[in-house]
Batch of 3 targets.
Target 1
Amino acid sequence: MTYCHTLIIGAGHAGYSLAKELRKLDPNRNICLVSSDSADYYSKPLLSNGFSKQKSAADFIQKTAAQMADELNIAIWPHCQAEQIDTELHQVQTNKGTIQYQQLVLATGASPVKLALPPATEGLVWSVNDLADYQNFLQQSQGKQKITVLGAGLVGIEYANDLAAAGFQVSVIALEQQPLAQLLPPLLGDVLQQQLKNLGVEFYWGSAIADAELTGQHLRLTLADGRSLDTELILSAVGLKPNLQLAMQAGLDCGKGIKVNRTLATSATDIYALGDCAEVCGYNLMYIQPISLSAKALALTLTGQSSAVQFPVMPVIVKSPALSVVSWPAAPQQQGEWSFEGHGLDWLARFQSQSGQLLGFALTGKMVAQRLRLAKEMPALIA
């Protein structure tokens, strides 16, 4: 059996950020990090700009797991699957043995949502959520010309932009009627759509794939409304769902994610969660900034300085070179109206209550420079 003071499950941005913060505060702490993948250190958000820059998966690796282990003076177990948590004995069973912990942190991330698609699409539908996914999709794209992206949210639009810039013929299929429907009002969505169309991206709004037929190297997709298109490869980017299986098996309270309080403590003693898998006071925020803030707060808590996480307004920056986009959407239940100022590609949109309170905003083009000013006009998400 292996013993450690702090055990971190997950080697993504959340897991590594916490390990770094802990090491700053406690030079001698016994830290172990286990990961189901290679545990190499890289920036996942950069993957959606990789095709246009002709990058291989190896090009994204900033440091190997061995280099990170040396730099942080921690034990890293790559290709190690955490299988079961014993909350009473403070033990985690893995495929490489049992680990005894004093503190356990779940940073298990999220996985792509998988759609039920016609049988003919089997083997042609891929998602990119990590380095291995990127390499697989890159290999599948070799020699192909037509790629279809499912989903027009943040990841779908970033990849549509990147793939089109890399020279592929890109089609986007989405149930919505515009790109980034959760982030942009229709006016700004139209501006972004036109810029992507200028790159050659075709959009099929308001319908799903109903049928598919494979003929040679081409796949004929038929939508529920009767429209059809040909493709050679499909990138599914319809969303992510937190990885909750390990937590649920251990009896931890889960909702949209693993439920934690403001100190990121779960319902089980000495177990914490952060990152894409965590639901913090009702929020499941799958972005870099809240993860970084969570890591700093949790490191303090784990070293004896109980610290409640604080989330300011954190505008979402979309990596779409065709048009700069920044947004902070209002909460779904908030009532208000959009107002606009700008022209051409440069727009500032405010979502305000009847009393004039700023509830959300969206910016394009040169107006993205206003994001910090607007963020300061709004109350913190979690003060």
Note: The mean pLDDT is 97.
Target 2
Amino acid sequence: MDLLENPVRPYAWGSRTVIAELLGVPSPAPHPQAELWCGAHPADPSRLVRGGRSLLEEVSADPEAALGEDGAARWHGRLPFLLKVLAADEPLSLQAHPSARQAADGFARENAAGIPVDAPERNYRDPSHKPELICALTPFQALVGFREPTATVELLRALDVDVLAPHVELLAGQPDDGGLRALFTTWITLPQSMLDVLVTAVQEGAVHLAADSGSPWQGVARSLLELSERYPGDAGVLAALLLNRVELAPGEALYLPAGVLHAYLAGAGIEIMANSDNVLRGGLTPKHVDVPELARVLDFAAPAPPVLTGHPDGPWSCYDTPAHEFRLRRYHGAADRPLPVPDGGARILLCTDGYACVHAGGAELELRRGAAMWLPASDRGVTVWPRGTSTQLFLAADGL
């Protein structure tokens, strides 16, 4: 086992307080801090405190010790997941991720076209899919998946915007996944002159709806206003009208499979994902947007992802998903004795509150708030003793 030094990613939408306070450094930070990465991602791997070697180098040096014999073969010697602390003060881009087949095909297609892997117009930077799970640390708001069409018709009519009328009737006349695809594709491909008119009109309708305390759409309207103010004339504001608005309490989670359109709006959470960079964006961003490719991978018929609360797994709460690349467990509370850490594969243990003592192979390390620890597959029989009055730990592992 080894303590890790973990890189902070300074994206513009990040918080200047959440990660700084978690790490115990001066707050507010001079620049936004969006993500704390714990893993072996080639772009910015964690480093072992002892010796200073990157976790990417550590795994590559002895994949079987790091990942286990089965894991080393299954994941081709690579750590299959990336664990993050995500802290959003502003909305992230509207995006979706491809399936494994779509990612492999898209990667091969762009390679054949001669598009450099680091080119800004590249959609597929690797041949892998990117399922992910977000578990809230604070109240967390997101837009996730297409809302049931008849409910969306109710929202559009409640906005009471004349220029929306033909669009409302399009969906009202076909209230299914086909109607959603037609309306989404119409909006996302409008010329900018029409977008400017339509987004402004929707913003005006949202002002009145946000002020109506009796409306079931008040929260949605407030989110629309924030998006339209930050991204005036952006087609993503219209697309947001079609999505479910979800609020997570701390400890609640969402799993996002391939094809689910989503945007994180605000809050802090623990995110775990397959170790991939494949993102297809649909708006609310200055980055590359490929509308035809996004529309090709979207699942317009998928139900809204359920809110996960975790199920008991010994002393841990486990958030099960279909993803083989990762599994997330959470512990929150106090303990009067050491607790077992599940064996099997590579693991990263992160402390977000309190502190704990970790024992492995006769050695002991203290895990403080904001610190993370690498536990290779060869470390078996590991125990952790939460010593704070309300310690919170997250354990990332593969999903095998």
Note: The CA atoms of residues 40 and 56 lie 5 Å apart.
Target 3
Amino acid sequence: MTSGETADSQRVFRFAPSPNGHLHLGHAYSALLNFDLARQCGGRFLLRIEDIDTGRARNEFEAAIYEDLAWLGLEWEAPVRRQSEHFDDYARALERLDDKGLLYACDCRRSDIARAAVAKPNCPHDPDGAPLYPGTCRDKPRRGAREVLTQRGVALRLDMRKAAALAGQGLSWREFDAGDIVADPAEWGDVVLARKDTPASYHIAVVVDDALQGVTDVVRGKDLFEATSLHRLLQRLLDLPAPNYRHHGLVLDEKGEKLAKSVASTALRALRAEGWTPADVRARTGL
């Protein structure tokens, strides 16, 4: 079976929102694009609720997601996929990495890392702009993943040097309209993959989820383009299939800034209350 195929060669797309706020136009664009592409090729469209952050997930926001997507005219397969149902799968993935000697415990605080970055001239930063972890805890005596995840304030980090060496050469992904893109996971440094209050980071959860659900086409915003290098590394280390990727443009506000829940971008339900129609949403997002 080649990368990006299911047993019956039917393509599988997904939209995966987090129930920690109301959907905005950026979410609508990504959901509609995935739905349209699935329909055009006779593929499947899945809805996945990314509720791994149980402290921020809210039932009312999840209900609003279903309402907004139905208003847009989308239909998805039942049952809805939920991250909170797969904590054991994430734990097994972390244990596999731990068995390979690729994880280590880190009790550094963000303030510790920030001070180390200030003290180091020309400190490198990851693609999101955060200073790379200096490796303070990398050579401390190892502790098992299960033990670490019982301790508050301690994180599991990926030893990037060992992981990249084990993965070997030729790491890449297939990007829509761009061909093969060479992955460079080292630019992320020793990323956090889990901690007690978050049993799996976005990066580990998303690759496990996509594999479990047979996703062949990951269509998401270009703000996650660089993260694909890290996802491809984890897929190879965990022997997971590599989907095809398509990173679309972002819907921007009047100031040219990316829409986001964190800055209280206008919600779809507010636009609906103002009289917007699904056709208006498609027109505004270029669909």
Note: The longest strand covers residues 44-49.
